[in-house]
Amino acid sequence: MRAADIDRVKSLPLFADVGPDTFRVATAGAHLQRFPTGTMLLLEGDPVDFLYVLLDGQVELHGTWNDRETVLAILRPVSTFILAAVVLDATALMSARTLDRCEILMIPGDAIRTAMRLDSRFAMAVSRDLAGGYRGLVRNVKNTKLRNSTERLANYLLALRAADNSGSVVRLHHEKRVLASLLGMTPESLSRSFSALQKCGVTVQGAVVTLANLPALEQLAKPDPLIDNHAPRNGDIVADADAEVWSSEWNRSESQ
To answer: Which pTM value belongs to this model?
Structure first.
């Protein structure tokens, strides 16, 4: 890893509380790499040699079965992925490809496991990252199983508005085909859901979505803090775990 990149990597949530010796062990053999759009980073079923940390761009995680494919998650910076497989030294359960030009830190899995054994603070940082991902997975499962397609789209738009702090106009970060798969529906169902939301003041033109009547949209969506995370992604809220802590604290304050 280049000397110019070391300070940047040290500021990542995974390494924020570790000492110089642990940092040296954990990042032994690590390197920053830039990938063009559409690069397949790994395939499900492959052995996982590296932990990936997304620093810039977007990455799609997807799975396949019987000639079918579904989007499991869209990652934005800063995000680790395939961490569970690295900890267990297991094969990948999902594939990953870039949706934009991406800058990714690749850390050898052996170095991560060695640093975890040597430093409890680093092991806690890894556990915290895994906990953030697990809670996000639970939210996603509840969202998919408890809501219809229109409700899922409505809550996605509200969460996107909160994450980007974008007011009444939000910008979709990926193609509608990808968004449909992420929300567990076909592109045709996504189009019908957008049409159904017109009565709530939602209009879409390309990647730009206008939310002209937020009270009506919220009344249909019925956002729930035990499903939806409306943490703004800026300042101290960097990783999924940060967003989970913010959401829990906000929920407690609202309950008092």
So the answer is: 0.91
